[in-house]
Amino acid sequence: MSFPYWQQKGAVKTVDELWAMGDLTQVMKSQPAFARALICANDPLNKSEDLEELKKAANPKNLEVVDIGGHLGYMGSYWCYAHLVRMFNLP
After folding, report:
1. Which of 21, 39, 49, 91 has the fewest CB atoms below 10 angstroms from its CB?
2. How big is the CA angle at 80 (ends 76 and 86), to the nearest 5 degrees?
3. How many domains does the chain have?
4. Are strands 63-66 and 37-40 parallel, antiparallel or unpaired?
5. Which residues pair with 63 in a beta bridge?
6. What's the domain range around 27?
7. Using one digit for the tens of pLDDT, what is the confidence trace for 79-90?
8. 75-83 long-range contacts, Cβ below 8 Å, gap at least 24?
């Protein structure tokens, strides 16, 4: 559904280009030092072989893999809130 929008904006020419924009194995290669991705190993949307490929592609400083949490399971947790507070030096 978003392809026509990004195509009109000139960001992509093909659906494959749009798909590549969200491919963490590519995105993680060019992240600044402060960027971080949190992935749950038991996310039902991720295959274990894809997770292993991501671990090889990403700088370990930018990627944190936790055992449990499922798909976006930590987004509403105190753990995530505390991490954001530390990361952005919030009061």
Report:
1. 91
2. 145
3. 1
4. parallel
5. 37
6. 3-88
7. 777 877 887 777
8. 80/38
